[in-house]
Prior knowledge:
Elements: H1 34-48, H2 51-54, E1 60-63, E2 73-81, E3 87-88, E4 91-92, H3 93-106, E5 111-122, H4 127-144, E6 147-156, E7 164-174, E8 191-194, H5 200-209, H6 226-235, E9 241-243, H7 249-261, E10 264-268, H8 276-285, E11 299-302, H9 307-316, E12 324-330, E13 337-340, E14 346-348
Parallel strand pairs: 5-6, 10-13
Antiparallel strand pairs: 1-2, 2-7, 3-4, 5-7, 8-11, 8-12, 9-11, 10-12, 13-14
Helix pairs in contact: 3-4, 6-9
Amino acid sequence: MTNLTNLPAFEGPQCPLPLTHAERIVLGHGSGGRMTHDLIRTIFQAHLGNPYLNAGNDFAHLPLSLGKPDIGHLAVSTDSHVISPLFFPGGDIGRLAVCGTVNDVSMSGAIPLYLTAGFILEEGLSLESLERIVRSMRIAAEEAGVVLVAGDTKVVEKGKGDGMFITTTGIGWIPPDRPPLGGACAQPGDVVLLSGPIGDHGIAVLSARGELGFETEIQSDVAPLNHLIQALLQSAPHTHVLRDPTRGGLATTLNEIAQQSQVAIRIEETAIPIRPAVRAACEMLGLDPLYIANEGKVIAIVPPEEADAALAAMHRAPYGAEAVRIGYVESQPAGRVILRTMLGTHRILEILSGEMLPRIC
């Protein structure tokens, strides 16, 4: 493998920004990319902004002010799931809802404890499908070791709900001795780790929609990562950033971190694991696997002296057997992600501009 520490500095021309949509919501606003970020900044943060929300993570750190010695913090995260179809190879909307929220809480370094769930059901949904999805949620919650403690159910008219939407909120506990984790904590010299192959979830969902035009055995990677993350943090207690590359994929998530931390992240294309079937599907459809959604992968950015221990811990944990190093962090050019390609050239990875695959999570 090429030495990741010898990538030269790179500055070059940038692609023009896509047309803006200032009057109405379009699918691109749900991509997790640039349009989502702009919507959050100009609407939600403009009216609802506060230090917790403005941190830009998938979770909020909340202090436990109980008049006692420091007993840690709460981590809270909420997520809505509108995936189509409801069932796909390797999972369903119920497993996705539980795992997605457990993972968002876990990215704070917290131990997930509790979930709540809100269900919007469309008139005409079969009770068999509903029971199958709720059973899947129970199995996923048991695997993660969390308890669903509250919920709500609403029903909308036929044609106005697409079967089912689920919103989940997760609550976890951050031990008092755990150093802060977040997208703004990456430091020059850090090593970038990835827990396994990318793109499985997006291609599995496309397969379920019948959009591939050929058969594939690809299964979604949807899984709870909290046990893997706790094992990683025991071996690498000074880990700086944890982030799951869901909407917008690996490239968009790395851009978020680079911009939050104002660092450069350099990655090696030959180091990024992609299954042959995923690569083939992306080539056929003209998609870039670096921007395809994942639901069971984590990016870990760790100090170099803890990188080997972190990688070994990931290899020992469920869902981390294929973990690899993919790059490192530098100080400049701040806010940029640079890929060294298989040909030895360099490519700036921008944040996803529009919507590549709608309704993917």
